[in-house]
Structure formats: C-alpha cells, structure tokens
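As practice, study what follows.
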Amino acid sequence: MEIGKVPENVLKRAVFKQIRHRRQEIILHSGVGEDCCAMEVEEGYALVFSTDPITGTDKGIGRLAVHINANDIASSGAEPIGVLTSIILPPRTREKKLREIMQEIEEACRELSIEVMGGHSEVSDAVTRPILNVTCVGKVRKDRLVSTGGLVPGDELVMTKWAGLEGTAIIAQDMEEDLLKTLPDWIVEEAKGFVKYLSVIPESSVAVELGADAMHDVTEGGIFGALWEMGEASGVGIIADLYKIPIKQETIEVCEVFDVNPYMLMSSGSMLIGCKNGNLLVEKLMEKGINAAVIGKATEGNDRIITMGEDFRYLEPSGSDELYKVQKTAQK
C-alpha cells in the first residue's frame, strides 16, 4: 500500500469486514466517513478511558493491544465495552498484514465481549514496522470505581498469576531461534503460550466484590515497577517479599538466557491489589482458578522495600523495561 490513508476498498475488506457488533450501549458504529462513535450511558455510571500503544513487538499486536488496554479499564473496577484503534503501517505493507491485525483485534474483542467502536488506519514512512494504538472505553458504577492511589497503610498486597508473563511471551515469540540454542523446545513453547494469561478482568471482578482499596495492572517495569507506582500514587510506603512473588520457571529460564531481571519485565496478565484481608482475596481468587499470593503490605512513610531473607533493596521508579534490553542485544 502507498503512503496515506488506507484505500476505502481495502478498508472495507481488511478492517470493517472483520468487525462484529455486540454491545447495545454503542449507538453509533464504525464505518467509512464516521469520525466518531457514540455510546449511551446509564444514570449513576461513569465512563472510563485508557489508551496505550504496542511498540515492543509486531507479532500478535492486535491481541496484546486489546488486552493491555482492557486490563487498564478492569483495574479501575470498570467493565470494558469497546475499543478505538489507530493502526500505522510502513510503506509497502501488504493488505494481508492489515487484515491479520484486525482479525487479532476482533478475536480478542470476542473473547472479552467488547466491540471495535471505530478508529483510523494509514500507511506512513514515519514507521518501519506496524504500530498499533488502542483506546479502550469502559463503564462502572460510580460507587465501585477503584484507583491505583487508594492504598492505605496496613493494606495487604495481593499479586495475581505470575511475574513477567507478557515479556516472557514476547521474547519467546521474537527470539525463538536464539532461545532454542539453549533451552528445550517445550520450555519455549510454554513461554510463547503465556499470552493465554493476559486478561486481568476475572480477578478485577473478584477484587471489586471484596472491596479492594487499590488495583494496578502490572505492565512496563514489571512487578517492581508496579509496586513503586502503587506506593507513589497512594503516598504510602511498601514492603514486599521477593520470595513470595509468584513466577513461572519458564520465565526464569528465558530471562537467564538474556541476563535480564524477570521482576522488572513487562507483566500484563498480572494484577497488584491492595485490600484489607489478603488471605481471603487469595482464597476467592483460587476458587476461580486464578493463581494469587500475598506478597507484602502498605506502610507509613515513603520507603518502598523488597526483602530477600535478611537482605533488602529499595525500589526506585521504573526505567526502561527489561524487554528492550533483550531487543537491543538482538540488534547487535
């Protein structure tokens, strides 16, 4: 395709043909020439919006983008309703690639019972690989809205699933050949399959029912970054035990190959929850088949600390995610 807007005939075939309508709240749908979407909101409810791009990989970006943004919505206690997509493609991208991205987006939307509400697609020489930005819209009863900054001293910190899920899956997909030089193929295949854990919507609903004070999905910077961000947003201290943080052996193996810290690796699919009774929440999550553990608590003051037996380290604001170190290594 040439630089500029995606041609209308391609747009109809590769984009609109993939989209299905499934939310009654949406009353103005995506279509040629439609620059906006519209949704009806019930009284007593708030709309919640989140937007994030996928830049760390071009494999499976449709699925990743939908889940990551839906997770942001779920972390506020809200129900995701739909997404707006902006797809920027490099010159000479084939129509097939655009169709594949849209099929990934639609498949993820189907899994979450949400809808593609609209968006934009174009070809530009400003990018060398596809870039996808998604904005997700959700709704929540005003009295059930949860923030990252709601943590109070004494709250226990519950982490769901395992550290480094998203980053492990991306590395396994993008660096498969390098990993297979060191690791058995079954480990690499398991690591690639971590994409099945990406949604935190199930744990969000359990946490909201139990009255969680704060929720935060664990994304760039990994669990260390999420702990810092929740503490900073709430104005409290944090103490967490490294040995209580759940992590998959596949993640440890993949990270050892590239000498990166799995606790500072993208971890979409994991949620950090602040609540009064962490053990009760863990019990309820386990009943739903969701792995979880109490890993720490909120404290007075501003120190954010990770303990490791008798040793400890102070947390700092997250810098560049460990995933980017792996990608830089691959480029050398």
